[in-house]
Amino acid sequence: MTSKTSLQNETSSPSAVVGPADRTGRTVILGVAASDSHAVANHLIAHALRAQGLTVVNLGTCTPVSEFADACERHPEAEAVIVGSLNGHIHEDLHDLAQAKQDGRIHCPVIVGGNLSVGSTKDESAITRLYELGVDHVMNRPADLAPLLDSLLPAVTRPLAAAAAR
Ligand code: B12
Prior knowledge:
Blueprint: E1 27-32, H1 40-51, E2 55-58, H2 65-74, E3 78-85, H3 90-93, H4 97-102, E4 110-114, H5 124-132, E5 137-139, H6 145-165
Parallel strand pairs: 1-2, 1-3, 3-4, 4-5
Bound molecules: cobalamin (B12).
């Protein structure tokens, strides 16, 4: 399995790494992509992550990359940016993601999930293109988010600790 999580290879189960109680005090940034007004899954995901102890900075629907980046700057402790999309226009919505990461404005892993292309037939190339745009993980099930966050934690906290020590 590569370091990236795709709809196909998402079989690992790292939930044993950290228990739910240990997620208290950890922060994620959540939102729905720029062109997308579908709100229901966003609210359900925010609720579920909060129930697992995480602090969720929920930017809600129609959030451009620039607003995710602004939130990252306000919350340097954030360990992931989680972007939902349902209308099938995620690729256009994330066209400036790579630049925001390159500029250091988005410092943590970017996780994307939802309905990630237009039409009922889903093509793996839609996922590949997301990785090319700078997405780090593509997920299907909201229930898998917290375990993924747990598995990413060591890689995220080391740079944060180094920055705090400077
Ligand atoms: C309600 C709805 C609307 C409402 C939204 C109201 C609101 N404020 O939320 C309104 C009427 C505004 C709307 C508008 C549109 N919609 Co609409 N909408 C729906 C509908 C019926 C339900 C969506 C919903 O809330 N589901 C409930 C949630 C809980 O489930 P879910 O969205 O499926 O999410 C699940 C997974 O996708 C996943 N998931 C979702 N987000 C994330 C994020 C992460 C990080 C992860 C890990 C997982 C994840 O987990 C969820 C739970 O399993 C769906 C069809 C359907 N039956 O699903 C269409 C649908 C999503 N809409 C669609 C479309 C096309 C549109 C419009 C473009 C229509 C139009 N021509 O105007 C606009 C787009 C507006 C915009 N700018 O985004 C299409 C998308 C098609 C595609 N991608 O190929 C769908 C699938 C309908 C269809 N079959 O064509 N819509």
